[in-house]
Amino acid sequence: MDSFLILLRHAETQIGFLDHDRKLTKKGKSEGKRVAELLVNKYQNLRVISSTSRRTMQTSKFITDLLPGLKIDYLKELYLASSREMLDIIYEYSKYNKNIICIGHNPGIHHLSLSLIKKSQIPQDLEIIKNKFPTSAMAVIKISENNWKNIYSNNNKLIEFIT
Questions:
Q1: Which CATH number fits domain 3-162: 3.40.50.2000, 2.120.10.30, 2.60.120.200, 3.40.50.1240?
Q2: Taking the complete model, does pTM exceed 0.85, yes or no?
Q3: Is the dihedral of CA 38, 43, 45, 47 positive or negative?
Q4: pLDDT at 1 over 80
Q5: With contact defined as beta carbons under 8 Å apart, do 99 and 4 qualify?
């Protein structure tokens, strides 16, 4: 049975604050709600891990508002983590969870998506993701045969890329 890794970049933020403390803009809040609605209507048995920045915590709250019992782990290690650091954390969570949402930051989220995705259900999505991973973007990656140990295999597939 397949598993899913959902990589979600935080929603749009204000400028002029310390990086860790940046808040979502009005547009960011609207985008965050939209992405949360898409997530909860399509995917079940989710485990959410998120950076501790204000913007990722605000983004994750839109998901928990729709799924009140959902547990989210806020991890300081995800704040500005590299793709390798993110993958190490995700791998640990994959031992106990089938479907994982990782809410984080660029460039880590973007680089991780590029390293894991070799093919796409929708070829245009793969071309878009090669060029950018904007705020509130979400990449849904099917991990073939629940094979987290060999996550870098060529069998992962981008199911959808939502911007």
A1: 3.40.50.1240
A2: yes
A3: negative
A4: no
A5: yes
